[in-house]
Design goal:
The protein is an alpha+beta fold. About 25% of the residues lie in helices and about 25% in strands. The chain has a single domain, classed as Nuclear Transport Factor 2, Chain: A (Roll).
Amino acid sequence: MIDLKLTKDGDLELTMKGDVSPTQSVCQAVRIRLLWFLGEWRLGPELGFPYFEEVFVKNPSDTKIKHLIRETVMSVDEVTDVESIDFSLDNRTRSASISVVFCTDEDTYTEEVKIQWQHTA
């Protein structure tokens, strides 16, 4: 799958000439899936990760969250397996961290995302 290359902050990555670059990065595809909130995209409201429904709730289930993370990562076409998932929730800083080690037919990758929700409600 060809996509526009993004920076770690989610902005379009521009060349020195100001052009956008294409990418076929499976890591970027996994990162986008994990940062995408359920219902965020009006053309596909059933798509995205259920942060408000499963993560940002009182007494969230770590087992269920890890299962949902695995399903989300496995939904990326090139991913063949998920080797490990580290998930932590910090109520004090109102953030969640996800680290996933996943495999494709060609290599093993690690992707990390941090979700902040202090500006959402």
